[in-house]
Structure formats: C-alpha cells, structure tokens
C-alpha cells in the first residue's frame, strides 16, 4: 500500500510552544519553490498574498482528511489569509491529488510540491502541518492546526487551543501572535 511505503507515522506531542519568534525566509529560494509547484499556473498570486497558511497534506493521511472541514471553514471565513494545500513529493499523481480534492470536498487551492522545494524552504516535516507566511516573507506560525490531536489515534471532541485560527486572527488584527510554534502530530513527509 502506497500509504505505508511513502509515509512513516510519527507521534509528536504538542507540549511546547514558542512565543514571538519569526523566521525570515530567503526570498530567492521562496520564489523558486513557489514557481516549482507542479500545478501552480499563477505563482505571483502566492508571492503577493498578504498572509498565506500553507497546509501540508497527504491524500492518504487520516489526519489530513480529518482537518479538511476546519480548513475549508478558515479558507471561507478568513478575510486576509489565503489557505493553500501542499501535497509534498512524487508519491501522488496529479489525478490522484484531484481525486483527493474532489473526494474530501476541499475548497482551497491544492498544489503539488513534487520536488519538495517548498518543504525545504519552509522546513515542513509532517502532514498535516500548518506554516503561515506573511507578505514580508516571515514564517509567523508553524505547527499543529489545533490541539485536538496530541497523539495518533486519540482525538479530543473540543480543542482548547485553535493554534492556526488564533494566529491568523491575531496577525489580521495587527496583534502579536501569542503562540508562534507548536509541534505537529501526523505522518512524516518522507524522501520520495
């Protein structure tokens, strides 16, 4: 099964969080990574966006599918942030990614990072993992979408910390982001 051959499970507990740290991206590398996305016909849209929440996803990762309704809601309701799905690596064809988008009713754009350049530039390691980039090319949040899943196979009904939503709301309101980094829980992005 492709899922087991391409992805290694990981358990990362969201027990730590960083406050107030931003990482400035290398603009040239970021631009090259955006331009290399396999099905991205309009790279300038991403490069000029004020705020982008990149969500690294895998079509066969159960947690990726679990978070799609919340991500659709954030995409629909956010006034300033753009939610963008990224499927890393060469494990999935364009048609398989299109099937994933259709089956899970994904409302936000999903791109294929088959050379994993964006993975490298942003330092993504897990699916699902959220990495928020400001127009100034700073990583302003990186990690879990929320704290509903702290261990694989265990989900809370309600979250106490909506990390991604809070970060988007705070930066949209010109406030300092309270929590800038958490550890994502999910499947490792492998070398394929």
UniProtKB/TrEMBL annotation:
Annotated Alkyl hydroperoxide reductase subunit C/ Thiol specific antioxidant domain residues: 55-141
InterPro entries, alphabetized: AhpC/TSA, PRX-like1, Thioredoxin-like_sf
Family matches, as Gene3D superfamilies: Glutaredoxin (3.40.30.10)
Pfam families named in the record: AhpC-TSA
Annotated protein name in UniProt: Redoxin domain-containing protein
């Amino acid at each position: 099964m492709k899922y087991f051959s391409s992805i290694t499970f990981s358990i990362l507990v969201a027990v730590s969080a960083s406050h107030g740290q931003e990482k400035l991206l290398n603009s040239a590398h970021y631009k090259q990574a955006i331009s290399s996305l396999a099905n991205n016909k309009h790279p300038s849209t991403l490069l000029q966006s004020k705020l982008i929440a990149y969500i690294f996803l895998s079509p066969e990762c159960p947690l990726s599918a679990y978070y799609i309704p919340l991500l659709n809601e954030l995409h629909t309701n956010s006034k300033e942030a753009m939610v963008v799905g990224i499927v890393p690596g060469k494990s999935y064809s364009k048609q398989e990614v299109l099937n994933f988008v259709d089956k899970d009713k994904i409302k936000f754009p999903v791109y294929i990072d088959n050379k994993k350049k964006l993975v490298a530039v942003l330092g993504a390691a897990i699916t699902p993992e959220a990495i928020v980039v400001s127009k100034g090319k700073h990583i302003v949040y990186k990690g879990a979408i929320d704290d509903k899943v702290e261990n694989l196979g265990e989900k809370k009904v309600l979250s106490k910390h909506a990390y991604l939503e809070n970060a988007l709301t705070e930066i949209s309101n010109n406030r300092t982001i309270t929590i800038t980094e958490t550890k994502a829980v999910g499947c490792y992005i492998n070398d394929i």
